[in-house]
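Sequence in, structure out. First:
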Amino acid sequence: MIKVLIVDDEPKITRGLKRWIEEFNLNYKVVGEAGNYLEALNIAEKETPDVFLIDINMPMINGLDLTNKLKNKYPNSYTIIISGYDYFEYAHQALKLKVFDYLLKPIPKTDLYNVLKSLKLEILSDRGESERQESVYKDKDNSEEKNQELSAVVSGVRRYIQENYSDMDLSLQKVSDLFNVNKTYLSKLMKEQLGYSFVEYITMIRIEKAKELLTDDILYSNIYEISNKVGFRSQHYFSRVFKKSIGISPTEYRVMKSNNNL
């Protein structure tokens, strides 16, 4: 069992994150929920968590300062920072503190799942254990079966897109340069092995992430925030692409899902 302490001053978000973690069935147990750094220190003293899930915007001291305190007291623990601020200085400070990951709000459920799954493997490795239980929660585009059919370059590109879909500058040229492969050849290879060209694949990933966020009942982000999160500079263009893919607008999708009409 991997013990988790959630630190966030918004009870609704804390409850939602706890629910997600339980649904993931990755052998994590939420041992406490703290609304400020004093509560966090008290619970940590009693429970000695393995993982701290900390919101950066906290009363009294921010999440990064709290992380520093906890790292000094619990050097073998892991920290995941949740932030609503896309500031380089915050990310740089988090890097210096050696946090496991820095997640920007809004957070698709599958993003948190993938981070916790990777963290679990690292913790088990540190403990000299192997994974015994398979999660019942599935990221629909992250199955082992698909990976087995892919060449090394397509598998690597696929993973890179899944981890960087928020990057507004993500392009075929950028990725082909990164993987040292001709861009025309790469897109053709992706089409053959994934069934999608580069543009089709990144659009599919972004729309799937947007659908998650539109049905998220924890943060309830607005359309502009969601469009930025999934890599679109323009809310209008995002709405056009979404409607072309799904057949209805993002707002209509949200309403219909909330009414259980989809």
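Second:
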Amino acid sequence: TAGERRLGHNVNLAYFAQHQIEALDPKNRVIEELSRAIPPKIEVKPRDLLGRFLFSGDDTDKKVAVLSGGERTRLALAKMLVTPANMLCLDEPTNHLDIQSRDVLEDALVEYSGSMLLITHDRHLIRSVADLIFEVVAGKVNVHHSGYEEYLRTREPEIPTAGPATAAAVPEEPGLSAKERRKLAAEQRAKTKVFRDKIAGIEAKLDRLTAEQSRIEGVLGDPEAYTRGEDIPALSRDYEQAKKRIATLEAEWEAASGELEAAE
């Protein structure tokens, strides 16, 4: 397909796609690859940023050539984020990333203060970061302004989504005009949306972690896995890590649900 884009005034664009991984110099060390991407006058501590993307200690001195696909993706994303861009275009950024790396990416994108155009099949990532959905159907673009959960309710109302879709209740108070009641309802919706978004983000991470945990269980329960070269110790560590992370997220979900209930 072909098209035309028009950037607004003072828009600085950064783009990420899988070919960015291929552009990494295999001869460089990780710290060198990132440091060379930092523009002049941009105050970034390379090791601190690499630490956020799970490169710590001796990992920063590894050669790019020996990195796994997930590690290369993390490095490429770190390089993108050091550019002084106020708009990011991301094409399937979670490809090749493990669970922990996806969590790191989600956290970085949630904290990002600029605009973002995200192309992905990762529904968990959409739930966590997207607040505007563009649906392309039969050559037409439909815009959904209320985020992914509302989009699902619109498109597939029979599919349960995170949190009830009830309207904010406004107490009957004598003397309130219709305008004042609408304002109160809007304030109540805004107050609860923070908690609903938080719960949706936790549920997205839980869905992905439990799916990965089930996958690992299947591999570890397969007798042939022990003879076909699977890295059993690494899988066992990943399983325990996922188990602990799930327990933490479940506690966070309980706390957030209590906050939502108190706010409603």
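Remark: Residues 157-172 have pLDDT under 50 and may be disordered.
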